[in-house]
């Protein structure tokens, strides 16, 4: 019942706020496992994790099992209905109870979030393709500002969504899509990047993992894996 209730909240909100939800369907568990995969390599020492745009918690519930005493999980969510759902899940979902001491929900735009420390892992569910270029530029800057040296940033986008958006709008959205391309390719160019294809999601999606080592140079990417969810492929920055 909890899963159905969360899906109902998601569908209701995406109908009225598609720009910030980005999809008519919640993310699949296969997508969730891929985007949280870097947490498998977490150190024994306490870590700081930031989730941007957690929605109803599809990725959060896969982050929670990785948390240990001393860790920090910050959830930054602008949508008040999603914030209410997250608070209820933390209060009542037994799978989340172990995360209560570690977790804080921040109801504000990411651009207004200024924590005392940076993060070892950032998981972003924000729909980059939907934002005006000026807002996306601010979000990209937040990723740089909030990620520790040596940290990992993971986000996703639906396969071929940018060219499809151009076609769907008869080219009218082309200039904005071009700006989105430049901003996201600029982000990729500054990090070591790997890409996973997640076919068991609707729509199918790519997950990007970005990393940079503690000295400022490029770090090793997330190790490749093969499963029913798709094949990991590595892409040079800017692709």
List unreliable stretches of 5+ residues.
6-18, 217-239
- Overall structural class, as computed from helix and strand content, comes to alpha/beta
Main beta-sheet annotation: 9 strands, mixed
Distance between the termini: 41 Å
CATH architecture title: 3-Layer(aba) Sandwich
Percentage of residues in helical conformation: 25-40%
Strand content of the residues, in percent? 15-25%
Q: Round the Cα radius of gyration to an integer and report it.
A: 17 Å
| CATH fold-level label | Rossmann fold
Mean pLDDT: 84
Q: CATH superfamily membership, which one? A: Vaccinia Virus protein VP39
Element-level helix/strand string: HHHEHEHEEHEHHEEEE
Give the arrangement of secondary structure elements:
Elements: H1 2-16, H2 18-21, H3 29-35, E1 48-52, H4 60-63, E2 72-76, H5 80-92, E3 103-106, E4 119-124, H6 133-146, E5 147-158, H7 161-168, H8 174-189, E6 192-198, E7 205-211, E8 226-227, E9 230-233
Parallel strand pairs: 1-2, 1-4, 2-3, 4-5
Antiparallel strand pairs: 5-7, 6-7, 6-9, 8-9
Helix pairs in contact: 6-8
Describe the structure.
The chain has 239 residues and is of the alpha/beta class. The chain has a single domain (2-233), classed as Rossmann fold, CATH 3.40.50.150. 34% of the residues lie in helices and 22% in strands. It contains eight helices and nine strands. The protein has helices spanning 2-16, 18-21, 29-35, 60-63, 80-92, 133-146, 161-168, 174-189, and strands spanning 48-52, 72-76, 103-106, 119-124, 147-158, 192-198, 205-211, 226-227, 230-233. A nine-stranded mixed beta sheet has the order 3-2-1-4-5-7-6-9-8. Helix 6 links the parallel strand 4 (119-124) and strand 5 (147-158). Helix 6 packs parallel to helix 8. The longest helix is centred in the last third of the chain and has 16 residues, at 174-189. The chain starts with a helix and ends in a 6-residue tail after the last strand. Mean pLDDT is 84; it is low at 6-18 and 217-239.
């Amino acid at each position: 019942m909890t899963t159905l209730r969360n899906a109902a909240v998601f569908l209701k909100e995406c109908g009225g706020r598609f720009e910030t939800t980005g999809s008519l369907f919640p993310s699949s568990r296969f997508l969730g496992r891929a985007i949280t995969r870097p947490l498998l390599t977490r150190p024994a020492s306490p870590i700081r994790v930031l989730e941007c745009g957690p929605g109803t918690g599809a990725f959060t519930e896969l982050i929670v099992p990785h948390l240990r005493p001393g860790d920090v999980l910050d959830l930054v969510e602008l949508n008040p209905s999603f914030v209410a759902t997250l608070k209820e899940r933390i209060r009542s979902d037994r799978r989340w109870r172990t995360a209560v001491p570690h977790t804080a929900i921040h109801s504000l735009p990411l651009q207004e979030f200024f924590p005392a420390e940076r993060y070892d892992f950032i998981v972003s569910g924000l729909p980059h393709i939907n934002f005006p270029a000026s807002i996306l530029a601010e979000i990209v800057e937040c990723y740089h500002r909030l990620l520790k040296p040596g940290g990992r940033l993971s986000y996703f986008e639906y396969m071929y969504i940018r060219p499809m958006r151009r076609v769907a709008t008869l080219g009218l959205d082309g200039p904005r899509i071009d700006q989105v391309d430049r901003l996201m390719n600029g982000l990729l160019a500054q990090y070591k990047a790997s890409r996973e294809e997640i076919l068991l999601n609707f729509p199918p999606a790519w997950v990007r993992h970005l990393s940079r080592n503690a000295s400022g140079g490029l770090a090793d990417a997330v190790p490749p894996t093969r499963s029913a969810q798709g094949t990991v492929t590595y892409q040079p920055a800017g692709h």
